[in-house]
């Protein structure tokens, strides 16, 4: 069942009576807030941690594959997927894309990389390490995608308000219960979707094509990941917090305040650490998920406009990409 916020407003009697004494223009209704966005990051106040290497314009969307040791990074002008060597931070292969991307996930260790190419209305699956591609037409402006245990891929068609279920390279179902779907994460055959227009989190049984549950998800959620304890972790970007949700039943169990406009997320399954970029302060923060409550275990200064982050669960190395400068930051945290 959807859990909705209910707000009661009580007007003082004197104001109510005053309002009856003369006609006045009705107050204009406030405009809807809309989807939360990363902060416009300030100039750097501290030297970025680790090593910073040049990459390419508009770096946003990253995922690391521990099998091949490759970091996949989406860049623009032109739209490409860079496959980057972990040790040097240098691209070893470039894969042309039909559109730009902001989110990347692995279908499984070893690939392929799931690339929602937004302005081409297609899901591109990029094989590792050779960069071969499979392109599937999906809904309007695909923003994120995740594969569930059965092998189906759930794609969030952000501007279409739909979810496309892709099976073996073909859309086999289209779900229409979203307003503006964005981040997607999977636990087994269940996928969770952040709706950035409705500020909600919804779970779906993907093989059955059924909505399971929906709950409120803060003041302006954007991204989410699943952790090793079977929970969903959501960046409440407008609310300056990370929210923890149990999966079954779907409900919010904790809120961790994190000032700085949290945005990009990556999860280290080995150390059980959630890495969160703070776009208002040019930082990346590590939050341990080993307990019932999140706890901060690390914090580093980053490159400017750190919209995206990835992590190598084998070595613990953290990668931060700059949307503003096209730089890549490599931080060794262990």
Describe the model.
With 334 residues, the protein is mainly β. Helix content is 2%, strand content 47%. It has one helix and 28 strands. The protein has one helix at residues 13-20; strands spanning 51-54, 62-65, 70-75, 80-85, 91-96, 105-106, 113-117, 122-126, 133-137, 142-147, 153-157, 162-167, 170-175, 181-187, 190-195, 200-205, 210-216, 221-226, 231-236, 241-247, 250-257, 262-268, 273-278, 283-288, 295-301, 308-311, 318-321, 327-331. The strands form seven sheets. It has a four-stranded antiparallel β-sheet, with no helix packed on it. It is globular. The chain starts with 12 loop residues before the first helix and ends with a strand. The relative contact order is 0.14.
What's the layout of helices and strands?
Blueprint: H1 13-20, E1 51-54, E2 62-65, E3 70-75, E4 80-85, E5 91-96, E6 105-106, E7 113-117, E8 122-126, E9 133-137, E10 142-147, E11 153-157, E12 162-167, E13 170-175, E14 181-187, E15 190-195, E16 200-205, E17 210-216, E18 221-226, E19 231-236, E20 241-247, E21 250-257, E22 262-268, E23 273-278, E24 283-288, E25 295-301, E26 308-311, E27 318-321, E28 327-331
Antiparallel strand pairs: 1-28, 2-3, 3-4, 4-5, 6-7, 7-8, 8-9, 10-11, 11-12, 12-13, 14-15, 15-16, 16-17, 18-19, 19-20, 20-21, 22-23, 23-24, 24-25, 26-27, 27-28
Gist?
The protein is mainly beta. It has one helix at 13-20; strands spanning 51-54, 62-65, 70-75, 80-85, 91-96, 105-106, 113-117, 122-126, 133-137, 142-147, 153-157, 162-167, 170-175, 181-187, 190-195, 200-205, 210-216, 221-226, 231-236, 241-247, 250-257, 262-268, 273-278, 283-288, 295-301, 308-311, 318-321, 327-331.
């Amino acid at each position: 069942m959807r859990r909705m916020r209910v707000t009661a407003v009580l007007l003082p009697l004197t104001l109510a009576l005053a309002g009856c004494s003369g006609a006045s223009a009705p107050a204009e209704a406030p405009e809807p807030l809309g989807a939360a966005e990363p902060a416009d990051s300030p100039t750097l106040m501290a030297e970025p941690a680790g090593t910073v290497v040049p990459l390419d314009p508009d770096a946003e969307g990253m995922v690391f594959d521990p099998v091949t040791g490759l970091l996949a990074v989406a860049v623009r002008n032109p739209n490409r997927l860079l496959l980057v060597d972990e040790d040097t931070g240098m691209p070893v292969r470039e894969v042309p894309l039909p559109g730009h991307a902001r989110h990347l996930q692995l279908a499984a260790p070893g690939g392929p990389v799931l690339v929602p190419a937004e302005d081409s209305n297609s899901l591109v699956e990029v094989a590792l390490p050779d960069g071969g591609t499979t392109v599937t037409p999906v809904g309007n402006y695909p923003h994120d995608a995740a594969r569930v245990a059965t092998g189906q891929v759930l794609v969030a068609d952000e501007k279409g308000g739909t979810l496309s279920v892709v099976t073996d390279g073909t859309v086999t179902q289209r779900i229409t219960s979203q307003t503006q779907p964005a981040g997607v994460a999977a636990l087994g055959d269940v996928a969770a979707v952040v709706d950035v227009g409705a500020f909600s989190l919804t779970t779906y049984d993907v093989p059955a094509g059924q909505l399971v549950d929906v709950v409120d998800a803060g003041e302006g959620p954007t991204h989410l990941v699943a952790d090793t304890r079977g929970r969903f972790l959501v960046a409440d970007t407008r609310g300056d917090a990370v929210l923890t949700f149990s999966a079954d039943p779907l409900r919010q169990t904790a809120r961790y305040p994190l000032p700085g406009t949290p945005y990009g997320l990556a999860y280290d399954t080995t150390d059980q650490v959630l890495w969160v970029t703070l776009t208002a302060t040019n930082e990346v923060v590590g939050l341990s998920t080993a307990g019932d409550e999140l706890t901060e275990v690390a914090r580093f200064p980053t490159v400017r406009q750190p919209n995206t982050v990835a992590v190598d669960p084998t070595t613990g190395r953290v990668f931060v990409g700059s949307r503003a400068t096209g730089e890549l930051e490599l931080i060794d945290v262990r």
